[in-house]
Design a protein that fits this description.
The protein is α+β, with helices and mostly antiparallel strands. It is built from 4 helices and 6 strands. Helix 1 packs antiparallel against helix 2. The protein has a 3-stranded antiparallel beta sheet with strand order 1-2-3, with helices on one face. A 3-stranded antiparallel beta sheet has the order 4-5-6.
Length: 251
Amino acid sequence: MDFVKDRQHYIDRYDVLTIEECLQWIEIAKKSGRNVREIQKIEKPGNVGALIDLSLYFKKGESYRNKETTIEKWINKDKLHQETYDNAKEPSNIFCDHCNYAMEMKDKSLHWSWEDNPKILFLFECPNCNKRKGVFDSGEVFKHESICPKCESILKSKHTKKGEVLTIIENCKKCGYEYKDVIDFEADEKRSKAEEVRRQYLLDNFRQDYCLTKEEGDHYIEHQAGMDRLSKMMEDKRQRMKIQNIKKPEH
């Protein structure tokens, strides 16, 4: 399994977030009437008002300022996942809990990827009775126990699969609570493809409007640094004048 993607993958990921944020802000601004001139009928929403344009200038600039840092953070996290996955050692001497046969490793996957120390779960299958068992690279056996939200008893779980649809039913023997979850893998795949099309549409149509180039971004950062220096100079001057006024002798 490959966790680390080419750099363009992360650039596109970041740019989509920037575009979505800008488009969302424009819609909010338009609804709240924050633009300072009448909204004109235009093909793209980048020129709907001076105030919106000014706010977008800062939004795009600050997005550029944080871009490289964020992308490096994403890459480093995926590198950690890749290293963890590649270097995980398969647990040995795993036997079936039902017939005591030696089990065979069939698959492994990354768990708790949002944490600093993710784990690798190995899936074992018994060649005799086909029962399965999950074991982490630490040797800990995976246990999935759902708790009843009404009486806090352990729920009984049943899984059935028909075609590309997986149905999970959990019920409580004590109070009668039941939970049903239906996972349609085919529908999920269609939604995933539709999302990819949507993201590509945003990149193709709005990247040039809301994602600054290196030249534009560096100019923004340099300009903001100059404004910060000017602001500090003015504040220092104001403080000096204030001190001088305090020391000025009374007549």
